[in-house]
Fold this sequence. Notes:
Blueprint: H1 4-22, H2 24-33, H3 45-72, H4 76-90, H5 93-105, H6 109-122, H7 127-139, H8 147-156, H9 159-172, H10 179-189, H11 191-195, H12 200-213, H13 217-230, H14 235-246, H15 253-260, H16 267-279, H17 283-296, H18 301-313, H19 317-334, H20 337-356, H21 360-368, H22 376-389, H23 393-402, H24 408-423, H25 428-441, H26 446-458, H27 462-475, H28 480-493, H29 497-510, H30 515-527, H31 531-544, H32 548-560, H33 564-577, H34 582-591
Amino acid sequence: MDYYEPMQYLTRVIALAAAMVASPLLAQVQQAAQQPVRTTPEPGAQANTRATNTMFTARLMYELLLAEFSFQDGDPQSGYRFMLDAARRTGDEALFRRATDMAIQSRSGPGALEVARAWREAHPDSVDANRYELQVLLALNRVAETEAPLRATLAALPKDDREDFLAALPQLYSRASDKTEAAHVVEHALDNALKDPAQAAAAWTAIGRLRLQAGDKVGALAAATLGQDADPAARWPALLALQLAAADEPQAESLVQHYLQSAKPLPEVQLAYARWLIDEGRLTDAHAQLAAITARDPEFAEAWLLQGGLYAQQRDDAQAQLALANYMALLKLKGGADASEGMDRARLTLARIAARRGDYPNAEALLDQIETPGQALTVATERAAIRVKQGHLDDAIAAIRAAPDDSPRDTRLKLLAEAQLLRENGRAEQSYQMLNAELRKEPTDEDLIYDTAMSAERMGKPDEMEALLRRLIELKPDAYNAMNALGYSLADRGVRLPEAKSLIEKAVQLAPDNAFIQDSLGWVEFRLGHHAEAERILSEAFRRRPDAEIAAHLGEVLWVQGQTERARAVWREGYRLDPDNDTLKQTLKRLKVRP
C-alpha cells in the first residue's frame, strides 16, 4: 500500500477545510443562514429552524469544500459547477461571483458565460452580474450580444458612477476584432444615456472614441461636437478632441478651445492641450496656455513642471529655474512617494541646466539627490556627460559602468549607453568592436544592429553601415529610424540621391510628426537642388522642433539663396540652443561664416 499518497490527499483536504472555515465567503453564507426569523414562529418552530439552519450550513459547507477542492485538484469544470449549484440553491451573489471566477480561471469561456448568465437571471438588477456577463462576452469576442448587458449595467449603476463607466467603455471594447461593429453596438446600447443631459457628453465621447478606434475620424469628430453641444463644460468631448487633433484632424482644436472658454475648465485638460501644442512646435501658444493655468490654478504643480521643462528646452534657464522652484515648493507641501518622484524629475532638469552652465559641483549635487527607482541609468548618463565636458572620458565610462544592472534589460541599456559615449567622443572603433561582439551573440537585436551601424559610419565605413541598416530594414520593414539614417547618409555624401529621397519619404510616411526625419527630407531636397522646397520643409521642421542641427541645415539653405541675414539669425538661434553641436560648427567652418 502506498501510504504517502493517501496521507498527502488527506492533508490537502484538512488544509482546504481549514481555509474554507476561515474564508470570508463561508462567513457570509453562515451569517445569512443564521439570520433570525422575523415572523412569529409556531410553537416548536424555533428549534426546528435552528436545526434546519445548522443542516443547511453544514451541507453548504460540504458543497463549497467539494467545489474548491475539485477546482484546486485539477478538475476546474466540476469545481465551478458545484459552486454554481450552490449559488442557484442559495441565490447568494458571493457564490455566483466565485463560480464565475472559477470558470474564468479554468479558461472555460462558455462555462463562464453560462455562470454569468445564471447569475444575471437570478439577480437581473445586479451591477456585478451584468458587468461579468458583458466582460465574458467581450472576452469571447461576441460583441453583438453585449448590447443588453451593457444597457443593464449602465442602468443598474449608481448615478455618480455612470460617467466613469462610460469613459471606460472604449478600453473595454478595445480588443473587439470588428471595431465598427463595436461602435454600432455601443451606440445602440447608450440610446437612453444620449437622451440624458447628465450623461450625454460622456456617452457621445465614448461613441466617438470607439469610432476613432474603427478609423472613422469624421464620425468621431461629429460625436465630440454633439457631446460638447450637450454640455459645453464637460471635459470628455474636449479630451476626445485632443485625441483627434493628435491624429491630424484640423477641426478638432476648436472644440478644445471652446471648452477652455467655459467657466471652470479643468487644468488637466488645459495641460494636455499645452503638451499637444509643444509636440506641434507651437511653443508660444504652449507658453500662453501654461501661463493661464498657473495664473488661475497656481497650486496645480504639473503645470509648473511642464513650464520649467519648456523653458529649459529653450535655454531660458532663469525662467526654468523659477518655474521648477514653484513646482518643488508645492511638492514639499504634498509629500508622499509621488512627490518624491516629482522632485527627482525637477532635480534632473536643474542638474542639466547647471551642467551646461559649467556649474558641475551643483549639477553633481543635484544628481546625488535623485533616488527614484529606474532613474539610475539616466543619472549615470548625465554624470558621464559632465565627466566628458571636464575632459575625463574614462571617468565618464566608469560612471556608466557603476550604474546598477538588476536585469538583463539594464545590462543591455548600459552597453548601449557606453557605446554611444565612445562613439560620440572619438572612440568609434572601440564602440564598434564592443557592439559587434554583442551582435554576434544576438544577430537579430534591432537596437544593436542600429547602433553598430552608427558606429561603423563614425569609423568611416559607409558600406558597412549601409549593410547593417538594410539588414535591419529586412528584419523590421517599418524601421523608419534605419530608413532615415541610411537616406540621410546617402544625401549627406551626395550619392544615389533619388534612392535617398525614396528612403526618407517612406520614413516620413511611417513617422510623419518626427521633425528630424523632416530635416532629412529637407536636406535631400537641398542636395537635389530643390532649394525652395528644402527651405519650406526645413522651416517647418525648425518651427516644430527648434534644434541646432536643423538650424545648421536651414541656415545653409537660406545662405545659398542669398538670404544671408535670415541664415545668420537661424544659426545664432541654433548656437544658443546648443553651442557644442558638431553639425552646426562644421557648417559654419565650411562656409567660413561667423553668425
